[in-house]
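Justification of computing resources. Each target in the renewal requires a structure prediction run like the one illustrated here; the chain below, 96 residues long, is used simply to show the kind of job we budget for.
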Amino acid sequence: MPTYISLCHWTQQGVEKVKNSPARLDAARKAFKAAGAELKQFYLTMGRYDFVIVTEAPNDETAAKAALTVGTSGNVRTETLRAFTEDEYRKLLGSL
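Resulting structure tokens:
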């Protein structure tokens, strides 16, 4: 299943209620599952992004739907990247 990495920022609204973030993460996991995706990993980060999530979805449309559903809360902004595993990378380069 394709992997996606989302680089995330809390919005002003999200950071003002940051203590609610663990509950929002739990809700996001459920929203991803309802959309047909899975939130696999969460990392609180230092630097340019507030946190990073790693998700899996069967296709780009499902990944986009999940991210947009979570984004409608107004607490986060995301930049999502399609990630290729090492095996996918090797297969892709082997086909050149």
